[in-house]
Design a protein that fits this description.
Elements (H helix, E strand, L loop, with lengths): L1 H4 L3 H15 L4 H14 L19 E4 L5 H13 L6 E6 L4 H10 L4 E8 L4 E7 L2
Parallel strand pairs: 1-2
Antiparallel strand pairs: 2-4, 3-4
Helix pairs in contact: 2-3, 2-5
């Protein structure tokens, strides 16, 4: 968090994403604490977003996690991603900026996914998440 408060929330989230990935299987409680930290980091001011070029929405699968308990959301999202065929995508619908999820994807699937914001709040965030062909 100190790195984030020092004006480097993007760097802090990249580090936290790697820590989450390393801990998630053998130390899930610690990984959940890292996840909470990442959600706090995204509320800090940042110079740029973690997006790629914006694309138009398509008639792909939509995964709305707003009614899911927070502990279940990431599991559903990663399960949906794992089921995608190469070149496939889905639209995530969330009630807050899912930027911590971006860093978790970056830690676990570096270079293998796309991330395009379609809508950025304040009530609803929509992100198109794809599997690179």
């Amino acid at each position: 968090m100190a790195l984030g408060r020092a004006g480097k929330p993007e760097a802090a989230n990249r580090i936290a994403g790697r820590a989450w990935w390393a801990l998630r299987d053998e130390h899930p409680a610690e990984a959940q604490r890292i996840n909470a930290l990442m959600h706090g980091l995204v509320k800090l001011p940042s110079g740029h977003g973690a997006t790629t070029e914006e694309r138009m929405p398509t008639a792909e699968l939509e995964l709305d996690v707003r009614m899911e308990v927070p502990a279940r959301r990431h599991e559903l999202i990663f399960d949906t991603y794992e089921r995608l065929a190469a070149g496939g995508a889905f639209t995530l619908i969330n009630d807050h900026d899912p930027k911590p999820l971006y860093y978790q994807f970056a830690a676990e699937h570096e270079g293998q996914f796309t991330w395009d914001y379609l809508e950025q709040g304040p009530e609803v965030w929509k992100v198109r998440i794809g599997r690179v062909p």
